[in-house]
Amino acid sequence: MRDEAVKEVAYDEKYDPREGIEGSGGEYASYFSVRLRVFCEKQKISIDDGVDGKDAERRHYAIFRGNLALAVCRLSIEPPYAKVERVACLKEGRGRGYARRLMLEVISIVDRDHPNAIVVALAQTTVLKFY
């Protein structure tokens, strides 16, 4: 896991997740493919719920192995809150500390950039133990 770093992923307005999991390629497509695989394919959440139109306003983070995103989340700053949303990890990355490392790094970024923010994690009840 040493080579995998947490990285901020730039929003790509040209990428349309409704075109399919791989989309147009690039880091944002790889980031978004994790969300689509975890939420839409595995958990059967509709694409309309998975793509809520708020991504242009959010910051996106991922841990990559090569060009493959393994764990992802997005961050919404809505004072006084910093909301960590859409946390997802591919099956091949689970149990290896990727999601934990991602969360700790994002919380560190919030502490640095928004020291008075209250960090809130939005999550499904089935994964509350992780938090």
From TrEMBL:
The UniProt record lists the N-acetyltransferase domain at 55-113
Protein name per UniProt: N-acetyltransferase domain-containing protein
Question: What are the protein's GO molecular function terms?
Answer: acyltransferase activity, transferring groups other than amino-acyl groups
What InterPro entries does the record point to? Acyl_CoA_acyltransferase, GNAT_dom
